[in-house]
């Protein structure tokens, strides 16, 4: 693996703070606790996201510039019911404003140990209605047997009418990270 330059650029807490830049953006979204921070750290080979995700921290859109050429964008986790209504509304508005900026590709993370969720269905419906390209990514597959992986993959394809099988990944073992990289490279 060639070495990359990975630079944390900053966070947007409001729609006005969203980055406006011609360089392509690759967004990562999923329910809180899906393993998004872990996957992004593993992907970038750097512990960039851990500290930003301590429970109770204000949710934001985080930007990381890779090779000075494109962005990894960490979107707020959803489905965290314990937040106050006002905060949930802020996050929804921020995410909606973010998608209006039209990322090049959005990775929707799905926990391999958890059955398909309505919240994820909403995310796919949202991306489809905006005509934004996306790719499903299953996380934590190290915790699944071979049969369970196949079953999870099938279940997600059916539940969300996916046209491509999800990428099976593990931040723990590094499995599937190459496929995520490839999806990014193909879209650049
Ligand atoms: P986030 O809230 O989506 O950013 O999720 P985190 O990255 O903080 O991970 C949530 C939980 O899932 C933590 O307890 C992690 O240890 C666990 N986790 C994350 N990635 C993996 C993985 O690849 N395999 C397993 N078995 N657990 C994971």
Automatic annotation (TrEMBL):
Fetch the PROSITE patterns from UniProt. G_ENGB
> Its GO CC terms?
cytosol
Q: Among its keywords, does the record have Magnesium?
A: yes
Q: Which cofactors are reported in the record for this sequence? A: Mg(2+)
InterPro entries associated with the record: G_ENGB_dom, GTP-bd, GTP-bd_ribosome_bio_YsxC, P-loop_NTPase
Residue ranges of every copy of the EngB-type G domain listed in the record:
22-188
Gene3D superfamilies the UniProt entry points to: P-loop containing nucleotide triphosphate hydrolases
Question: CDD domains, from UniProt?
Answer: YihA_EngB
> What GO biological process, any one, is recorded here?
division septum assembly
- What Pfam families does its record include? MMR_HSR1
- The keyword Hydrolase belongs to this UniProt entry's keyword annotation: no
Cite the GO molecular-function annotations of the record: GTP binding; metal ion binding
Task: Cite the entry's keywords alphabetically.
Answer: Cell cycle, Cell division, GTP-binding, Magnesium, Metal-binding, Nucleotide-binding, Septation
Q: What does this protein do?
A: Necessary for normal cell division and for the maintenance of normal septation.
- Assigned protein family: Belongs to the TRAFAC class TrmE-Era-EngA-EngB-Septin-like GTPase superfamily. EngB GTPase family.
Q: What is this protein called?
A: Probable GTP-binding protein EngB
The uppermost taxa in this organism's lineage are: Bacteria, Bacillati, Bacillota, Bacilli, Bacillales
């Amino acid at each position: 693996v060639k070495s990359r330059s990975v630079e944390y650029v900053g966070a947007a807490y409001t729609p006005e703070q969203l980055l406006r830049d011609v360089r392509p953006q690759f967004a990562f979204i999923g329910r809180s606790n899906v393993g998004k921070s872990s996957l992004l750290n593993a992907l970038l080979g750097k512990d960039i996201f851990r500290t930003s995700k301590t429970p109770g921290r204000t949710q934001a859109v985080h930007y990381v510039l890779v090779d000075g050429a494109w962005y990894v964008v960490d979107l707020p986790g959803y489905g965290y019911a314990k937040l106050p209504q006002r905060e949930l509304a802020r996050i929804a508005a921020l995410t909606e404003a973010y998608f209006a900026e039209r990322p090049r590709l959005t990775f929707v993370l799905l926990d391999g140990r958890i059955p398909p969720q309505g919240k994820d269905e909403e995310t796919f419906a949202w991306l489809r209605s905006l005509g934004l390209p996306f790719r499903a990514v299953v996380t934590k597959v190290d915790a699944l047997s071979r049969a369970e992986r196949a079953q999870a993959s099938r279940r997600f394809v059916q539940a969300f009418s996916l046209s491509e099988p999800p990428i099976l990944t593990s931040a723990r073992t590094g499995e599937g990270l190459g496929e995520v990289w490839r999806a990014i490279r193909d879209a650049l």
